[in-house]
Write a structure and sequence with these properties.
single chain; alpha+beta; five-stranded mixed beta sheet; binds adenosine-5'-triphosphate; binds magnesium ion
Length: 415
């Protein structure tokens, strides 16, 4: 027997949901264009090494969430769990490193083997932006402003709070890491099992553990701020200043770390309380070491990704598409005439539905079910007069309209 379910954690996007996804994606794409982000698409799968080292062997993503397989040629491939590494790979593969700054927007499916929950899927979709080659704070401000503008346009900015932190430069981060490990090691026995493992491999990650016991221990952990170099502090101040100047409110969250290993300096998340535990809708930061780590030149980077599913759940019902007109034959006529007329109306930009089969009553019923604004009735008598009967399906009024005026008349009705 065929398995009639989609794979766990995957879902069909039926038209109503798809409309919401489109609204999120289209809004993001057009606003990102205002900032000069050009759309890019990279393959949905890559050689596993594109993700493994850059994201970090000890991150949740690489250690337990990747869809990795061997193809028939024996290549080790992985379905992309995120798109930043793929974008950087594309920059390197296409020799674009001399053309900085580079600014990209992307939108598409990502894959992670996670426990499915509300707002958490195994195939999900992200939009995102990246700026490569700009090491200065205004780039951080610009990407955050772009994300903020998108949330505003989607009508959810007032339900999302920007949380901000800095991980400093690599030296500050290393110094802090050492202090954190020293502190956590003392409390090791009281940490959750997961955090004990993180302590070995990815200690910063303990900071955003959801476990209550861990949280109590973390509450007294050393503060990152004390380990920041002067240059890192100054960088972070400039970012904060920029956000304040353009009126973007934020809250400092010294516990905010990001799941991926490659972040430096600014990290941020827009968080909402609307979606229960899956509260992060848009998240990102600066990743100045990534390009070099992937074999390219030293090149700064900053960007974010946002989950389309989570945003789509939060937005208001998108406006419905324009109502169509429905073509209905009267009596026995050559239906090809109807098809040709429908094509002419579509040439004029009208949405046209065929009613396909049944008697007049059934076809009218179908036209109403489709939400048609008007029915175009064509029978022998209309054809003889080179006209069609237009029935206003809201008022029930109908009139004979010469074919030459039909498109204009219907356009006026449907707009
Ligand atoms: P989380 O802490 O929720 O697991 P994350 O840190 O793994 O998030 P990122 O890698 O930063 O998430 O991805 C950016 C955004 O993509 C998230 O804020 C979220 O909106 C979305 N996202 C991540 N994983 C999933 C998923 N499995 N299903 C749906 N959306 C997701
Ligand atoms: Mg995750």
């Amino acid at each position: 027997m065929l398995a009639l379910q989609p794979v766990r954690g995957c879902q069909d996007l039926l038209p109503e949901t798809m409309r919401r996804h489109r609204r999120v994606g289209d809004t993001a794409r057009s606003l990102a264009a205002l900032y000069g982000f050009a759309e890019i698409a990279t393959p949905i799968f890559e050689f596993t090494e594109v993700f493994a080292r850059p994201i970090g062997e000890h991150t949740d993503i690489v250690s337990k969430e990747m869809y990795t397989f061997r193809d028939r040629g024996g290549e080790e491939l992985t379905l992309r769990p995120e798109n930043t590494a793929g974008v950087v790979r594309a920059v390197l593969s296409n020799g674009l490193t001399q053309q900085t700054p580079l600014k990209f927007f992307y939108s598409g499916p990502m894959f992670r083997y996670e426990r499915p929950q509300k707002g958490r899927f195994r195939q999900f979709h992200q939009i995102g932006v990246e700026i490569l080659g700009v090491p200065q704070p205004p780039a951080d401000v610009e990407v955050i402003a772009c994300g903020w503008r998108i949330l505003k346009e989607l009508g959810i900015a007032d339900r999302a709070l920007l949380e901000l932190n800095t991980l400093g430069d690599p030296e500050s981060r290393a110094a802090y890491r050492e202090a954190l490990v020293a502190y956590l090691s003392v409390h090791r026995a009281h940490l959750s099992e997961d955090s004990q493992a993180r302590l070995e491999r990815n200690p910063l990650r303990v900071l955003d553990s959801k476990d209550d016991g861990d949280r109590r221990i973390v509450a007294d952990a050393p503060e990152f701020a004390r380990y920041l170099s002067d240059a890192s502090c100054e960088f972070f101040e400039k970012v904060q200043n920029g956000l304040t100047q353009i009126g973007i409110a934020y809250r400092l969250n010294p516990r905010l770390v990001r799941g991926l290993d490659y972040y430096t300096h600014t990290v941020f998340e827009f968080v909402t309380t609307d979606l229960g535990a899956q509260g992060t809708v848009l998240a990102g930061g600066r990743y100045d070491g990534l390009v070099e780590l992937m074999g390219g030149p030293a090149m700064a980077g900053v960007g974010w990704a946002a989950g389309i599913e989570r945003l789509a759940m939060m937005i208001a019902e998108p406006p419905s598409p324009p109502r169509p007109v429905a073509m209905i034959p009267v009596g026995v006529i050559d239906e090809l005439r109807l098809t040709m007329l429908a094509e002419e109306l579509r040439d004029a930009g009208l949405g046209v539905e065929m009613t396909y089969s049944g008697n007049l009553g059934r076809r009218m019923h179908r036209a109403n079910r489709l939400g048609a604004r008007a029915a175009v009735l064509l029978g022998e008598s209309e054809l003889a007069q080179n006209a069609a009967t237009v029935r206003d399906l809201d008022s029930g009024e109908q009139s004979l309209v010469p074919l030459a005026e039909l498109a204009a008349r219907l356009t006026a009705m449907c707009s």
